[in-house]
Amino acid sequence: SDLRYHEELESLVKNIKGLKRIRFFMTFGQSYLTHMKCLENVGMLRIDEVEHNGMKIVPIQFLKTLLPDPASLGPRTKGKTNIGCVIRGLKDGKERQVYIYNVCDHEACYAETGAQAVSYTTGVPAMIGSLMVAKSIWSGKGVFNMENFDAKPFMDELNK
């Protein structure tokens, strides 16, 4: 696994009372990690401009041009995602730990939406959030995150 920064950590720490520590990590296969390390070592993951044949390019943007369109990967992606939270704390004065997770099958997601599971688990919640705003179920002035709103109508839509 690999500890990473993720913007939702800031919001969760701010909006969940009593939260003392939160970490975000992702697990990747060894082949993926080896490829990413190689690309990083040769500078292809750089986000700053470099000069190449008299032109300024951003290496990671050039790499994106060379890689296949992610949408083209959907029909051939196999396996499952596992996105979860390990939550440890006190409930009714007793130590408790729970693991809340979501598993999505790439092939089932593709059959339903034409997208693989990573796109599905990113896009479906965003679409439902947009629906909540469009129907004025979620509203307010300013910037909000999902945890600022009632989860029930969101979960009702998700379960459809």
Describe this structure in words.
By secondary structure, the protein is α+β, with helices and mostly antiparallel strands. The protein is 39% helix and 21% strand. It has 6 helices and 6 strands. The protein has a two-stranded antiparallel ribbon with strand order 1-2. Strands 3-4 form a two-stranded antiparallel sheet. A hairpin with a 2-residue loop joins β3 and β4 (55-57). It is globular, with a radius of gyration of 20 Å. The model has no long low-confidence stretch (mean pLDDT 88).
Low-confidence stretches at least 5 residues in length (pLDDT < 50)?
Answer: none
Helicity, as a percent range = 25-40%
> What Rg, in angstroms, do the CA atoms define?
20 Å
Q: What percent of residues are in strands?
A: 15-25%
How many beta-strand segments?
6
Structural class: alpha+beta
Oligomeric organization of the protein chains: single chain
Number of helices: 6
Mean pLDDT: 88
The general outline is globular
Order of H and E elements? EHEHEEHEEHHH
Please list the strands of the largest sheet in the order they lie side by side.
1-2
Report how far apart the termini are.
Answer: 32 Å
Q: Biggest sheet, open or closed, and with what strands and sense? A: 2 strands, antiparallel
Distinctive features:
6 helices, single chain, 160 residues, two-stranded antiparallel ribbon, alpha+beta, 6 strands
Task: Please outline what is shown here.
This protein is α+β, with helices and mostly antiparallel strands and 160 residues long. The protein has helices at residues 8-15, 30-41, 59-66, 106-113, 117-134, 151-158, and strands spanning 2-3, 25-26, 50-52, 55-57, 80-91, 94-105.
